[in-house]
Amino acid sequence: MNKGRLIVFSAPSGCGKGTMLAEILKDERFRCSVSATTRAPRPGEVDGVNYHFLTREDFESRVAAGEFLENAEYCGNCYGTLASEVDVYLEKGQNVILEIEVQGAMKIREKRPEALFIFVIPPSVGELRRRLEKRGTEAEEVIAKRVAEAAGEIAQAGKYDYVIVNDALEDAVKDFFTVVEAEKFKGSLSGELINEVLKNA
Ligand code: 5GP
To answer: Which of 101, 104, 122, 139 is at 20 to 30 A from 157, Cα to Cα?
Structure first.
């Protein structure tokens, strides 16, 4: 059986990343790694489903024990990808999505250069601001801070293999699957196939 693909999926808040992922995960070939974090659960979030919610002490001892593939600090909290959430599923042939921020993504780039890196951006920063205002969950100054943060993150999108604009959800999801499909034919990942073809040459 072919191994699954490790996919790093990043986007600033307000880009519709959550809605895109919900659509993508309807396809059983894909699963999302459940990260660990020290931040408190938001209403409705379930331990082991949205995140593994850990105390800082527990998080740090698991970092020391080498349990994380990557970890990073973001807005005063620790976040990290547990190796146990990744390799066992890749071996089973599932594509594993890491929904992580840029610093963590760059650590994965070093450790797992074969991973596929996708960054989702809004059609414009103005549109991002409008979406955050419409959501109405944050105060005006928090929105301004998030928009500024988002602009900083979007400026780093060029470090990723592919950038998808989430203007219309359906198109963005289609673009995601197109990218994953095209990646199957990548020369640098076709070593086994090439050797097989050349076997009796
Ligand atoms: P939130 O607190 O809103 O759930 O997540 C804040 C940020 O942390 C988001 O950008 C999210 O992608 C990122 N994040 C979630 N899990 C991980 C992880 O395991 N590692 C890293 N580096 N970032 C993560």
So the answer is: 139
In this structure, the residue with its CA closest to atom 24 of ligand 1 is: 100
Q: What residues are in contact with ligand 1 under a 6 Å CB criterion?
A: 35, 39, 70, 72, 74, 79-81, 99-101, 103-104
- The whole-angstrom distance between residue 172's C-alpha and the CA centroid of its chain comes to 15
3-state SS assignment for residue 48:
coil
Q: What is the model's pTM?
A: 0.93
| Residue with CA nearest ligand 1 atom 7 | 101
Dmax (CA) for the chain in angstroms is 67
Distance 190 CA to ligand 1 centre (A): 32
| Interval between CA 151 and ligand 1 midpoint (Å) | 17
Q: Helices 140-154 and 125-135 meet at what angle, rounded to 10?
A: 140
Can you tell me the mean pLDDT for 117-133?
Answer: 93
Residue 29 half-sphere exposure, CB side, CA atoms within 13 Å? 10
Q: What is the mean predicted confidence (pLDDT) over 49-65?
A: 98
The predicted-structure confidence for 89-122, as pLDDT tens digits, reads as follows 999 999 999 999 999 999 999 999 999 999 999 9
Average pLDDT of the chain is: 94
Distances (CA, A) of 109 to 104, 113, 154: 9, 5, 18
